[in-house]
Structure formats: C-alpha cells, structure tokens
Specification:
Bound molecules: zinc ion
Shape: globular
Structural class: alpha+beta
CATH superfamily of the largest domain: Collagenase ColT, N-terminal domain
CATH architecture of the largest domain: 3-Layer(aba) Sandwich
Number of helices: 13
Order of helices and strands: EEEEEEHEEHEHEEHHHHHHHHHH
Oligomer: single chain
Radius of gyration: 21 Å
Helix content: 40-55%
Number of strands: 11
Number of domains: 3
Largest sheet: 6 strands, antiparallel
Length: 382
C-alpha cells in the first residue's frame, strides 16, 4: 500500500503555447472564480503566461497557482515587486483559512498550524528543523549551492485522520485513506495528522518524551519515514536543490526523498545517518533483483508511469532509492550537475521520453555501462 503521495501531478494546463512572462518586476492583481463560488482577489507575479491569458502566478505566501484563462474575471498590473509574506503574515493567512481551533507554532524555519496538542506540534517542528539543517549541510558538502529557505515552510498538523481527510480529499481524492501525509507542490505546504492519536498506538497524547518514545517504536517507523520523506521533498524544493513545476523525473525526486527518509529519532539535537542504507527499500530492491523484476534504467528514466501506477509504485520507489544511492555515492559530481540542469528547465513543460534519456546521458554517460557497474556495486552493499 502506498502510504504517501508526494506530488500531485496534474495536467500541465498552461503548457500549450506558453512563454515565460516578462522578467521585469510586476505585480498582477486578479479577480478569479474561487472553488467556493464567490470571487477571490489575488495578487502575485506571473511566471508563465499562456497565449489564451492563463497564468502561472507566484503569490506572496510562496504558492504557485495555475490559473486557467476561464477562471480569470479581471486583471490589472503595476510595477511593484512581489514582497513575500513575513512570519506573522503567513501565520495569519493560515489561521484565516483553517477552522477556528487551529493554533500556530513557529520555529526558526517552520510555521506549524495545528489543532492537536502543542507538544506534538513542537515535536514535529523539532524533527523538521533537524532534518532541514542536516539536509542543507549535506548538499553543501557535496558542492551544491543550497541555502535555508527565504520564507518559513508551512506545515498543517491535524488532530486526527478524519479531520485531515476532510481537508485533504480535495488534493488526494479517493487515495486519502492510504496517505498519512503529503507535500503539495503548488501550495508548497505539507499536510499530516497526529500519529500518536492513531488506534494502533492507543490514542495517547503525552509529553514530548512520550511522543518520542512512542514514535521510536518499530511499528511507527514507516509512519515517521513518510513524514520525513514528505518533508524532504519540501526542503529540496525550497533550498535551491530542486525547482517546483519543471519536469522533475520521479526516479530522481522520489529516490532523493527515499535517500533521506530513514528516521533518526535517537537525538533531539542532531540528525545522523544520511546516506545509510535504507533497509526497507534495499530489501525490496534486492528481492526484485533476484526475482528478475527490476526494470531497465532506460524505462525508469524515460517516464514516470511506473511510479504512478499502484501496481508498480512500491517496486519503482525501491529501485529509485537504489539508483540514487548508487549515483550519489559513486557519481556525486555528475549527480549535482544533473540536479542543476533539471532546475534550469522551463516551467510547466513536459519532456519527451527521448529527451529525458538524453538529459540523463548528458551527465552520466552511456546507460549500459552504468547499469552493469550499478548491479556490480549494489550486489556488495550490506
Ligand atoms: Zn515522494
């Protein structure tokens, strides 16, 4: 069962005949049809403009909104630059959108909106702060130009599955029952719920010590891994490593997230173990390899179908972990260069399978040679 869905791939509505909007700073002021039926006023910077007037708009809260022409009622612009919302303004915006029992917990790089215990919100932000610190330090050492996000990252923590599901069904549809947390590329937020409230854990909500003890149990490991996985996506897309809404291949984005997802709750201050073997992914990969079920690299790279079908997704994630583990370890420079090339791609444009393969080859060389080295090295991983 797929426990998470990190990204919501939608049709790239604006891709047809679109071009990057003029680069001079300008703020668009729009009246659009809101899903609730009334009009919504929004302002932001147009990143892409379609020939029919549809827009990809960056708003001051860091969201990227796709606005089909048919939803835009009126539009005017001035030459002011986009000013990102500060911490207080972001918190205010979140509270205005959420039910009245939500509160805010703010840490250095995160704004957690929650209607569960304050202690759980603190546990969450402390976990994510440690992850972010370690993630950025890791890629800096690898020579990638990364930095802490300019704006704090937003996380919504619901008290229970039911309230989470009623909020998340607009994003996840029928998958909402299987997905315990997700990152939405467009709103740039993570949505999750209080894991300690789950039946399996007796529904207890205790002190920080109790929460840590409960979520350090083996039964909680895949759940915490999901939170870390989604948080890794959010950090990667906000620290300069990856760019939202370009054609990021799933094998890369998902493999990168699985590379970091092994939870480490042993210390409340640091985060060790990045780059360790992720045994749940590794075991499945090895099993599939021995059963002749791994897929050729070309198929993994050319499109995202294996990741999108429930029948093949879990195996594809395992193989993506293995490939990212291999490339980060044995091709670190090429991997960094590949990430850089992906981040430079145009917004909202989907590459053909041939182009995908070519972009891979540009950095890593011929697929056949690489594949034999991959299997040779991975066979020795313990
Ligand atoms: Zn993911």
């Amino acid at each position: 069962m797929q426990l998470h869905r990190s990204y919501l791939r939608r049709t790239m509505l604006l891709a047809a005949l679109a071009w990057p909007a003029a680069s001079a700073a300008a703020l668009e002021h729009l009246t659009i049809d809101s899903p609730r039926g009334d009009d919504e006023q929004i302002s932001g910077e147009a990143l892409v403009e379609a020939q029919d007037g549809g827009l990809l708009l960056k708003t001051p809260d860091g969201a990227l909104r796709r606005l089909p022409a048919a939803t835009i009622r009126s539009r005017s612009s001035d030459d002011k630059p986009l000013v990102p919302l500060n911490d207080e303004q972001l918190a205010e915006k979140l509270l205005a959108e959420l039910p009245p029992d939500f509160r805010i917990h703010q840490s250095k790089n995160y704004i957690v909106a929650y209607n569960t215990s304050r202690t759980y919100a603190e546990w969450t932000s402390s976990l994510l702060e440690r992850l972010q610190r370690a993630f950025i330090a890791y890629w800096k050492r690898e020579g990638c130009p990364v930095a802490a996000p300019a704006q704090p990252l937003m996380v919504l923590v619901f008290a229970d599955q039911a309230s989470y599901a009623s909020y998340a069904k607009k994003d996840l549809g029928s998958a909402v029952g299987n997905v315990i947390g997700y990152y939405n590329l467009e709103t740039n937020r993570i949505m999750m719920y209080d894991l300690t409230g789950m039946q399996a854990f007796g529904g207890s909500r205790g002190s920080l010590h109790d929460i840590t003890a409960l979520l350090s149990k083996p039964a909680a490991e895949p759940l915490v891994a999901t939170i870390v996985h989604e948080a890794t996506h959010q950090i990667a897309f906000n620290c300069g490593l990856q760019k939202r809404l370009v054609d990021n291949p799933y094998w890369l984005s998902e493999g990168l997230a699985t590379y970091f997802e092994t939870p480490d709750l042993s210390s409340s201050r640091s985060w060790s173990g990045i780059g360790n073997v992720n045994y749940s992914r590794w075991d499945l990969f090895r099993e599939n390899y021995h059963a002749g079920k791994t897929v050729p690299l070309k198929r993994l790279v050319a499109d995202d179908k294996l990741f999108q079908s429930p029948a093949t997704a879990v195996d594809a994630y395992a193989q993506a972990w293995a490939w990212n583990y291999f490339l980060i370890r044995w091709r670190p420079k090429q991997y960094a260069a590949y990430l850089k090339a992906l981040a430079a791609k145009p917004l909202l444009l989907e590459d053909s399978p041939a182009k995908r393969v070519q972009q891979f080859r540009d950095q890593f060389g011929e697929l056949d040679e690489l594949e034999s080295e991959f299997y040779r090295r991975m066979a020795r991983v313990k």
